[in-house]
Give the backbone structure.
Amino acid sequence: MHTHSRIFRVTLPLWPRHFLILTVAVLVLGSFAACAPLEHHGPAVSTVETMPSREKQRNSPPPEEKSPLAKADPHALNLAVSPEIRELSQLSAWDTLPLLDAEEEAAPYDFPLAMNNQVEYYLDYFQNRHRKTFAKWLARSSRYLPMIKKELSLAGLPEDLAYLPMIESGFNPTVSSHASAVGTWQFMRATGKSYGLEVNKYVDERRDPVKSTKAAVAYLSNLYKQFDSWHLAVAAYNAGEGRIKRAMKQSDTEDFWEIAQSQYIHSETKLYVPQLIAAIMIAKDPEKYGFDDIDYDEPLEYDTVRVPRGTPIKAVALACNLPDEEILALNRHLSKAITPPSEADYPLRVPPGTKESVIENLPKVRVVTVTKFNTHVVKRGETLTTIRKKYKLSKTTLLKANNLEQERLSLGQHLRIPYQTTDYKLSDEPFHLDRNVACIPLLSLSVEPSGPPVGKKKKSRGLTKKKSQKKAASPSAKGKKSPVKKEKKKKSPAPLPKKTGAGKKG
């Protein structure tokens, strides 16, 4: 004990020793307090709240006889990112009620509607906090609704499903989700390919509103055949048929609203059907819900013209004298704004009434190389040499582009940076079948450098090597060639007198 006290006295100073003693005393007193019996000075809220649940568990039947669905935790929805989902977690159960009045019941809805707190929430949400965005959706919807409803009608599906893209993409054919779902109908890559959509480097038909609608109609028809319920089919469109089938098996029910009360599907899928119902109700009668000042888009109309492989959108726009964006808006599925190089006769969409102009003028469109300029602001420490190296230009080119005689630059000076790009012009010259002429029907234009020019360069290098090898041949070879040349020179003057002499004798 004496040795231990010495060690303790040497290793610890005075103040840490007192602090350690106080800490030990507090821990000892806390252990006594924890072991002491509880005194009921007031109502214990936690014990009162937990006791009934424990009594229910004791008095409940065994698990084999228990059939009710597993209720979702009221705070589970708070894990979702969307603020409206956190608010919906505070609503009551998913009890479905009939529509509010006879007029709504008599409305021509061919999608099964229901009314509950979640549907009412989204009716209010779309009318108030989400009003501007929903108004944009309504304005865009008129561009695609006639085409979508026609496809649904031909397939014998409810035409109200035409409003499904409203909650999927807001009728935006170029939108992409965080899960890499793309287009008006938000197809995943694998699902789109399985329903006939082409997705590659040059084409993504998930952005094609016409072809993606045909694929979505086929997908929805297949889902309805599997579930025989439009609520479950739409939920499967959002979550996948496999997840919905597992949820049906785990909850032992085929009713979507009962499954929505369980923990077997995500909050996004639970609220997907109420969103669609609210969107259908508002979109089919927007004035009733206060949307009476919508500037609707014109319906989608276009002509189709066959163009050669690798035809740029800019060339077609020049041929029909329209802005590039107007042609691109009809061909959003062309990822690089050119037709695929693999298809020699590609159907391109053009505005109505411009087909003949494209057919007539497209062969006259020529590719030209033009020089354009960017602007560079000189920063501190930059010189003409560092700037030309940055843009891979020669010193002479940079000086001439800016009319400079000296290399000295000043801070903040604006320099013109030249670069070459491809442009198109309409020529009145007749069309010649010559591949050297930069004409759209003869050239396959792509963003990447084509293969043949590289091969030609390699061949030219090979030829130069062969020529150099011939020049550097052995002296014996030179000796063989030189007599041949000398013989030709000797023979040429000799026969002439003989021929003349023979002629005279004859």
The chain has 23 helices and four strands. Residues 131-155 form the longest helix (25 residues).
